[in-house]
Amino acid sequence: LSSKFRTNFRMREPMLVEVDKELEDVFPVYIRNRQEDLMNLEISLERKDFQVLKQIGHKVAGNAAGYGLKDLGAFAKVLESSAADKKLDECEKVVVQMKSYIKDLELKFV
């Protein structure tokens, strides 16, 4: 490995989120739906389809907190706003953050 790679490489910490135990059965479906949203966001970024980016951002912003995922909801609000302003770079950044958040998510049902 090059020294540059070693100095820039960091292991990601899992994002531990406590979720209401009553959601344990439905949570896998929720996450699958968000993964599908992420695929659609990637396509929408390629197409510069700000309307779809805004719609998905709005949807996720509205439902994430109900599943205990406040940070995901915050990212989605930024996406919705950035898409409304047609700021492609900002949309791309927040989609990367959302993907990372979902990927690194570790749930604790309480």
Compact summary:
Helix content is 65%, strand content 9%. The chain is built from 5 helices and 2 strands; from the N terminus they run H-E-H-H-H-H-E.
Please, could you describe this protein's structure?
This protein has 110 residues and is mostly helical. Helices cover 65% and strands 9% of the residues. It is built from five helices and two strands. The protein has helices spanning 3-8, 27-47, 50-63, 70-84, 88-103; strands spanning 15-19, 105-109. The radius of gyration is 15 Å and the shape is elongated. Residues 1-11 have low confidence and may be disordered.
**Percent range for β-strand residues:** 5-15%
Category from helices, strands and their pairing: mainly alpha
Q: Calculate the terminal CA-CA distance, rounded to whole Å.
A: 42 Å
* Residue runs with pLDDT of under 50 for 5 or more positions: 1-11
- Give the C-alpha Rg: 15 Å
- Biggest sheet character: 2 strands, parallel
Given the structure, what is the number of helices? 5
The tally of beta strands, per DSSP, is 2
With strands numbered from the N-terminus, the spatial order across the biggest sheet is: 1-2
Helix share of residues? 55-70%
Q: Which sequence of SSEs, written as H and E, runs from N to C?
A: HEHHHHE
Mean pLDDT: 90
Using the alpha-carbon principal axes, give the shape.
elongated
